[in-house]
Input
Amino acid sequence: MKVETLTRWAATIVLSCSLASFASASSGDKKDKPKPPAVQVVDSGSFGIFVKGQRVATETFRIEQENGNSVIKSQLKETDGADSVNQKSELQISAKGELLRYEWSQTTGSSLSVFPDNDFLKERIITSAGAKPVEQPFLLPSTSPILDNNFFIQREVLAWKYLAVAPCNDQNGKRHCETADFGTLVPQARSSISVRMELVGKEKVSIRGTEHELLRLDLHGEGFDWNLWLDEHDQFKLMRVAIPADNTEVVRD
Output
């Protein structure tokens, strides 16, 4: 796939209106009662999260588009123990890539939300069921990516954004992209962090005993280095994540 094709596709996912919504709205003009815009499923599935080779959790996710807006839903379930803590999140992004709202909650009763407040972002935290909300402002624009703890599908969305905005070109049949820096928000940690993403190139990676040629991106931040592999032949879906320092591997089921 050419660089310009990749850029257009990635931008369509998180930064522009979906063709499905446009087609639905156009066809509705011909009827007395137009149908509601169709929901386009961009990606869905699950990730297995492994620490030292042992599965410790499963993240189930779904990315939808409607009226140009993207909704990224995720649920995290631990595999051990009847009293394990489950988490869920929902990230809503406008057609221009701006945050509309982010919600997170877990079975212990704590929850939080992030939303635009004038030109910046604000987080509202509830530490337990019945507790009084606490608010914290962040001097981040509404286009700042959300990279919350434990939700790897949000890293896929960041990778798509990087591929959409990073200057790229083809050199001798190989894709080259400049690195890009992003100011991001980690709501559960109540902190903002700066991350850098770069394209490494194509690599052959073994997933469940089968070799795949995937596109590798590296994600760097203060105190961490992650490796991400995307399948450019299957809509640039995130297939594998390696966190060497934590002996952690994330694999699409």
